[in-house]
Design brief:
The complex is a heterodimer of chains A (435) and B (398). Chain A is mainly α. Chain A is 70% helix and 0% strand. In chain A, helix 11 packs antiparallel against helix 17 (312-326) and helix 17 (312-326) packs antiparallel against helix 18 (332-340). The longest helix of chain A has 36 residues, at 80-115. Chain B is 34% helix and 12% strand. The chains are: A mainly alpha (435), B alpha/beta (398). Chain B: InterPro entries: GPI_transamidase, Peptidase_C13.
């Protein structure tokens, strides 16, 4: 499997290099869909230039990157393009290895459940075979590297690529089963952008499953492992934050990075839901609604944990999607990360109900983003409502996509245990609905 | 002696009689000449010596065609009655004539069947498109304009000016919308007029507004010598007159349409007064109830001529004396002696030393991360590495 992966990597690198050299690079770098105030390349350069002039980059409201990014780019700024290409390749390779391992786990679990007769007799066609799972890791790498969203994000040199790579390594570490590495990478991911905090729950569930510790609230080993993992995570987070203090000898970066993410002061349009709402909001209510919106991101973790405790990797996928839809400054790079994981669940295709309409909506909206931006900002014949409408439609498409996959997943699980042909009490054919 | 006295007294009496007669004649004459004198008196009674007009259309976009047509029709009437372009400040969005949706480009019609093109090629728009803002309007009125503003954009009125202010667009109770992005309130407008009064920028002011709920805009005026007319009362909408199916939009508003019909009959010498203007467009024709306000105005509206505001009737004094004007040629010649200075040919200063920049060495970075940080970071990384892969690999490294 290495050779096709190398080919894919080469193709991706060529595409990116070609785009870097073309005139599109400048155009893409300015697009708000890929460059948000949190991860725009212009701001990184600005921050480093301020540092060269002896001013703390966090003193203005321009720079919102973490000190580790300052450190990384201080030495690598001349090779920025290479750095981003390598980051993308690393992300893809990490996802490839992770999904390869995950497939093995899935297959083992399936075999176990078949031998334990947990499955209904007529579900042979629903069971995944190694043949069809063989190409999934390659497809995941392909989906990530050649996704136009990723390519645009890379050409725009948005540091979202680095966030994605850290999350990909976290996924790899979790699936390999190493609690320590998983905690370290999760701490790094949380340190970079606050929201991967919610990925703590699926990682914990997966590691518990891997150690064969049952998830019962009364079980001592459950709590022991949980506290171990949580303390590893918190310790590494504290260590990284304290280390960042020593870069500039100040705690300035905490309000600049985390305060900025949480309080959303910058209302530059992006593909998210926050900017328009808060542009219209009266000052009096803005605190309340900021809290409501931020809680919305973290809110789905617990119900999903309860429902999907047997399937933590799917939970991780849904959680990633929720983060990239509801975070305060989403970009297309975040969307690309969870879309890369879609081939893992390609066996759910027969249960997806709206996939055609949703893919049309997403593609359409992606094309309309620059059109309506141009009409609003340059031609002046539209206004912000138009752009916000497309943002809304895009997010609705994403939400419906995730809930469709959720429904399909649960439906397949139900069929596996209860058989394909469900009948109601009176013998007529029954249909599963998501209540 | 005795004989001369009666003659003298007789002569005195005759003289006195003649004087009396003359006085009487004089009085009669004066009485007879009462009507031209009255006329002359009336001629000078309004007290103004020049006329200005500020015509504002506060809407943009194609479907607000009628507001532009309103303003341009009033502009045409006011020009016809004598106010020159230099005394008219015309503020229009001016996006009708060359709008891609206009089936007859370069025209703006005010009557259906395209009878009257009010655009033509001699329209002088002073504030065009995005310059029509509340700020610019208030600056024009109060005269607080940056020194770089050209004369055509200024309202150079004085305390003997009669000003006509006509505004049209979309309005509401107490405000008027400007270009779909901001509003002017009736309080702001009243304060602007008070500033004008205190700066002696007008003698008398006529304010006409044709919007929905237009009467609310003149409710707050408190400066003297202002007369105001509006097309509808508070709570009523001003309606448009008629659509033209060829152009596809409504061409004029009702109130302005009937005001214009009224103005068509006015010529510079007409004696029609303001009371007639108040009767224009009754509710049966206009659907809304036009209103007016005259309590701040010092003269009786009956005595106020339409041409006091809409026209520019000059006061002309006719004299039969001849005046000779001689050219003073001698003074001019010695003013500007020719100066010969030996000057070097001028050239641009070296602003961008390209050669220097190209060969510049890259700047040394001034900031370096502190050593402690780097040490700590790499120590952590190495610790994580060995924790994961086990200490036994160390021997492979070394």
């Amino acid at each position: 499997m290495a050779a096709p992966l190398v080919l894919v990597v080469l193709a991706a690198v060529t595409v990116r290099a070609a785009l870097y050299r073309s005139s599109l690079a400048v155009f893409i770098a300015e697009r708000v869909e890929v460059a948000s105030p949190l991860n725009a390349w212009k701001r990184v350069v600005e921050g480093l230039a301020l540092l060269d002039l002896g001013v703390s980059p966090y003193s203005g409201a321009i720079f919102h990157e973490t000190p580790l990014i300052i450190y990384l780019f201080h030495f690598l700024i001349e090779y920025a393009e290479l750095v981003f290409m390598i980051t993308d390749v690393l992300t893809a390779v990490a996802l490839y290895l992770a999904i390869q391992d995950f497939n093995k786990v899935v297959f083992k679990k399936q075999k176990l459940l078949i031998e334990l007769d947990k499955y209904a007799p007529d579900v042979a066609e629903l069971i995944q075979t190694p043949m069809e799972m063989h190409y999934i890791p390659l497809k995941v790498a392909l989906f990530y590297l050649l996704n136009p969203y990723t390519v645009m994000s890379c050409v725009a040199k948005s540091t979202c690529a680095i966030n994605n790579s850290v999350i990909a390594f976290f996924i790899l570490a979790t699936i390999k089963g190493s609690a320590f590495l998983s905690a370290v990478f999760l701490a790094l991911a949380t340190y970079q952008s606050l929201y991967p905090l919610t990925l703590f729950a699926p990682a914990l569930l997966y590691l518990l499953q891997r150690q064969f510790i049952p998830i019962k609230l009364k079980s001592k080993s459950f709590w022991l492992y949980t506290t171990q993992y949580a303390s590893l995570y918190l310790c590494s987070l504290v260590v990284i934050i304290c280390l960042s203090f020593f870069l500039l000898n100040s705690w300035d970066f905490i309000p600049s990075v985390y305060g900025f993410i949480l309080s959303v002061p910058d209302l530059t349009p992006n593909i998210g839901l926050f900017w328009y709402f808060f542009a219209e909001m009266f000052e009096h209510f803005s605190l309340f609604f900021v809290c409501v919106f931020q809680i919305n991101v973290f809110f789905y973790t617990i119900p999903l944990a309860i429902k999907l405790k047997e399937h933590p990797v799917f939970f991780m996928f849904v959680q990633l999607a929720i983060i990239s839809i509801f975070k305060s400054y989403p970009t297309l790079g975040d969307v690309a990360l969870y879309m890369a994981l879609l081939p893992v669940w390609s066996h759910l295709y027969r249960f997806l109900r709206n996939i055609f309409i949703l893919s049309c909506v997403l593609i359409f909206c992606s094309f309309l983003f620059p059109v309506l931006w141009h009409l609003w900002i340059y031609a002046g014949s539209a206004n912000s409502n138009f752009y916000y409408a497309i943002t809304l439609t895009f997010n609705i498409g994403q939400i419906l996509l995730i809930s469709d996959y959720f429904y399909a997943f649960l439906r397949r699980e139900y069929y596996l245990t209860h058989g394909l042909h469900l009948t109601r009490q009176d013998g007529t054919e029954a249909m599963l609905v998501l209540k | 002696m005795a004989a001369a006295v009666p003659g003298a007294s007789g002569a005195r009496a005759t003289a006195a009689l003649l004087l009396l007669l003359l006085l009487l004649l004089g009085c009669c004459g004066a009485a007879l000449a009462g009507s031209p004198q009255d006329q002359a008196e009336q001629f000078f009674r309004s007290g103004h010596t020049n006329n200005w007009a500020v015509l504002v259309c506060t809407s943009r976009f194609w479907f607000n065609y009628r507001h532009v047509a309103n303003t341009l029709s009033v502009y045409r009437s006011v020009k016809r009655l004598g106010i020159p372009d230099s005394h008219i400040v015309l503020m229009l969005a001016d996006d009708m004539a060359c709008n891609p949706r206009n089936p007859k480009p370069a025209t703006v019609f005010s009557h259906k069947n395209m009878e009257l093109n009010v655009y033509g090629d001699d329209v002088e728009v002073d504030y065009r498109s995005y310059e029509v803002t509340v700020e610019n309007f208030l600056r024009v009125l109060t005269g607080r304009i940056p020194p770089s503003t050209p004369r055509s954009k200024r309202l150079l009125s004085d305390d003997r000016s009669n000003i006509l202010i006509y505004m049209t667009g979309h309005g509401g109770n107490g405000f008027l919308k400007f270009q779909d992005s901001e509003e002017i309130t009736n309080v702001e407008l009243a304060d602007a007029f008070e500033q004008m009064w205190q700066k002696r920028r007008y003698n008398e002011l006529l304010f006409i507004i044709d919007t929905c709920q237009g009467a609310s805009m003149y409710e707050r005026f408190y400066s003297p010598n202002i007369m105001a007319l509006a097309s509808s009362q508070v709570g009523e909408d001003s309606l448009s007159h008629q659509p033209d199916l060829g152009i596809g939009v409504h061409l004029m508003d009702r109130y302005t349409f009937y005001v214009l019909e009224f103005l068509e009959e006015i010529h510079p010498a007409s004696q029609t007064n303001m009371n007639d203007l108040f009767q224009v467009c009754p509710k049966s024709l206009c659907v809304s109830t036009p209103g007016h306000r005259t309590d701040l105005f010092q003269r009786d509206p009956q005595k106020v001529l339409i041409t006091d505001f809409f026209g520019s009737v000059r006061k002309v004094e006719i004299t039969t004396e001849t005046l000779s004007l001689e050219r003073d040629v001698a003074g001019f010649e010695s003013k500007f002696p020719e100066e010969e200075l030996a000057t070097e040919p001028l050239k641009y200063a070296e602003q961008l030393p390209v050669a220097q920049i190209i060969h510049q060495k890259p700047k040394q970075k001034d900031w370096h991360p502190p050593g402690g940080f780097i040490l700590g970071l790499w120590a952590l990384i190495i610790m994580v590495f060995f924790k994961t892969y086990g200490i036994k690999h160390m021997k492979h490294v070394f």
